[in-house]
């Protein structure tokens, strides 16, 4: 039997030659010229089929930070999330159990490592060293290999865009755009990032050859979805809601997706990991529109008209996230693994005079998960699944060994043979591109303190807003009545 290597040797213009070779391999003479074209066509189809069968399966993981099962189920029932609905029809869906406290860096690092914070080392936003100095958690503080490291070590190319606690970027087989690239207010954050980029060891993109392209994509104005911006009429919202800031957050997710799509198109990575934070950021401010007014403090209650408009605005944010999932998943085939998930939900609660949605207690402990691909039964339920199960599930699906030191296990919705195991994937140092500039860390810590997000010792303050909440980055003015945007990147 002929090898694929021999069949490919003739190139795209050698169909006749391939037909003759195939017949010769069967011990027969080439047919007459009249039959040669038919033979070549058959051989070409056989070749194409064989090549397709050897295409390596790919993985897409889209994080939708803060997507609540309550809202997702409501909008699915109304037919407003067609792309997530399609994944559910073709695969599995359900709730995804999170961990407390629900601080974004610790939860998304658990998703990426299969380990709980006690093992991976990212406990929240800030760590304290032996001298009492406080430092924002960086990628170098993570004690465990993440999925992108494990896959790279196995020779698989990876793309990572905007995942929590990935700065400074790690040297992977592929492209990493860290969570320190994107500005909260673009001009101010760009100034901050210029300070970082002045040092070669703080470039927020690996490889650095992608930096200029990523910055160009970041500043582009083109839209990826047809979902209208629901924050263009600020007078329709209560006075404490900074509609201009929420409009920026709405557009911010499209920026992330635009960068991810361009890298995926150019690099053709085996694994793509993208984190969209918009649902979380916006829910902190207008979640209260979904709740009875008397469940909120008097200063943050919506009028009936404001409640109707703000709740619809939040639904539009979910619709945009769904549309971006559709764009990101468009190039992935039916046998590829596509995962869309959130790290927690939301519950009503007031904080800082402007926040009306929190993820502080067990009312928000569940996020959502949607999965389709080889080995996943159409229309199946994905429960119970925990955030610590994601990386073991992906490794098992890819045929890579699962670390015995991981806290998670492959999800039950995967119809796969028992996975191979290895004692640990943490078998060597992780190479990173430089280190964060201490002056930048100091500036961020000072702003966290000034806005009341840090108490002595660097932990979350008593009465802090939703787990995972953060103030604005350098230069961002707080919204009206002194509130700062929550869970900022």
**What coarse outline follows from CA principal-axis ratios?**
globular
- Poorly predicted regions are 1-43, 45-53, 185-201, 436-441, 450-489
Range of helix content: 25-40%
What characterizes the major β-sheet? Answer: 10 strands, mixed
User: Helical region count?
Assistant: 15
Radius of gyration: 25 Å
Secondary structure tally: strands: 16
Distance between termini? 56 Å
CATH superfamily of the largest domain: Alkaline Phosphatase, subunit A
Which CATH class of the largest domain is shown?
Alpha Beta
Could you name the CATH topology of the largest domain? Alkaline Phosphatase, subunit A
Q: Which class of secondary structure composition applies to the elements?
A: alpha/beta
Overall residue-averaged pLDDT value: 80
Strand content of the residues, in percent?
Answer: 5-15%
The tally of structural domains comes to 2
| Oligomer designation | single chain
Named CATH architecture of the largest domain: 3-Layer(aba) Sandwich
Outline the structure in words.
The chain is of the alpha/beta class. The chain has two domains: 4-52, no CATH class; 58-482, Alkaline Phosphatase, subunit A (3-Layer(aba) Sandwich), CATH 3.40.720. The chain has helices at 4-8, 15-25, 33-53, 69-77, 82-90, 104-113, 117-120, 147-153, 186-197, 211-218, 243-267, 278-286, 304-329, 390-398, 438-450; strands at 59-64, 92-97, 126-128, 134-136, 158-161, 174-177, 205-206, 271-276, 337-341, 347-351, 355-358, 366-372, 380-381, 385-386, 402-403, 421-422. The relative contact order is 0.18. The model is unreliable at 1-43, 45-53, 185-201, 436-441 and 450-489 (pLDDT under 50).
